[in-house]
Write a structure and sequence with these properties.
The chain contains eleven helices and 14 strands. The chain has 350 residues and is an alpha/beta fold. The longest helix is centred in the middle third of the chain and has 21 residues.
Length: 350
């Protein structure tokens, strides 16, 4: 298939591109390489896929020198004209939208970045799919949409009308926008609520990267809610396998959907929402202990109150993923942390 991955220089986008390239798909990755975190990491991910930094030109399409079935285009989703031309010229079979302004806390101080990228940009993706015969749009949502919901585990059948950050609200908006296009235009759309993704080539603003960096420098780590947190940490390879399976599984209208008792996860239209999480939440202090044991360092801990926009616990119900795709993430936190730390040492040693 010919697949567009937006956010292709990002953490998940890089890993997904690599997997799809290796299975023989034609992949075009798109990214605006913003400076939310160090762009060098994004350029290094691209270099690993055969796209050299000096070859990248804004708006231009670059052929990779490592994989003949991989290209990269430097473009922002907000570029309406550029997006229209890209979709019209390329004729994608599938689009995987991973591009977004990330981060819960950043949304508290930079809200317009989320409106522009996550909402206006996503509208351009939807329009591109609608007008150019895209067979399936798969897009990243987030466990953050569960907001004030305290029913555990989080189910896609739960109400998610009480987000507590603009980031979460923008992801919920994506799900609503996608449903509209599925309903009005018959565009098959699948939204994926990712749960705390971690692993090699991960984001520097995420807990595992921050903890590792601080501990190796002999600095204290910041532990919010005084450590009384649980997260459904999900290893990157498990996320990629879930996305890969979803790509080939087009949603169909649910014949049992009832407008009097509407199921939020499906519709009469070709629309579906899945959680992708390990479904095995880990206490934050246990997560830190696993890092300490792997590094052989005891962390100095700064115990702090809960941050605005954050939640105390996440836990994914993945029953639909198992039933529809026969898939459940399996990688343990111990395995995943070791893989990340092996990469971290290699990356910064080189």
């Amino acid at each position: 298939m010919k697949i567009l991955i937006t956010g292709g220089a990002g953490f998940i986008g890089y890993h997904l591109a690599k997997a799809l390239i290796k299975q023989g798909d034609e992949v075009l990755a798109l990214d605006c390489i913003n400076d939310y975190y160090d762009p060098q990491l994004k350029y290094d991910r691209l270099a690993d896929l055969g796209i050299e930094r000096e070859a990248i030109v804004e708006g231009g399409c670059v052929q990779g020198n490592k994989y003949p079935n991989f290209r990269f285009v430097y473009m922002a989703l907000e570029d309406e004209g550029g997006m229209q031309k890209l979709f019209a010229d390329e004729g994608f079979d599938v689009v995987v939208n991973l591009a977004a302004q990330a981060g819960v806390r950043y949304s508290l101080t930079n809200p317009m970045a989320y409106v522009k990228s996550n909402m206006l940009g996503f509208a351009h993706v939807l329009e591109g799919c609608r007008h150019n015969g895209v067979r399936h749009l798969v897009y990243a949502s987030s466990s953050s949409v569960y907001g004030l919901n305290e029913q555990m585990p989080f189910s896609t059948s739960d109400n998610v009308d009480h987000p507590i950050s603009l980031y979460a609200a923008s992801k919920k908006a994506n799900e609503l926008m996608a449903h509209t296009y599925s309903h009005l235009y018959g565009l098959p759309t699948t939204g994926l609520r990712f749960f705390t993704v971690y692993g090699p080539w991960g984001r520097p603003d995420m807990a595992l990267f921050l903890f590792t960096e601080a501990m190796l420098k002999g600095e204290a780590i910041q532990v919010f809610n005084r450590g009384e947190m649980m997260r459904d940490f999900t290893y990157i390879d498990d996320i990629v396998e879930g996305v890969r399976r979803v790509i080939g599984h087009l949603p169909k209208g649910n014949p049992n959907w009832n407008g009097k008792k509407p199921d939020p996860a499906s519709s009469r239209a070709p629309y579906k929402i899945y959680n992708i999480g390990n479904s095995a939440p880990v206490k934050l202090m246990d997560f830190i202990r696993a890092i300490e044991e792997e590094l052989g360092i005891e962390a100095q801990k700064n115990l702090l109150p809960m941050q605005p926009g954050d939640v105390a616990a996440t836990w994914a119900d993945v029953d639909d993923l198992v039933e529809d795709l026969d898939y459940k993430p399996q990688t343990s936190v111990r395995e995943g942390i070791k893989a990340f730390l092996d990469w971290y040492r290699w990356y910064f040693d080189k």
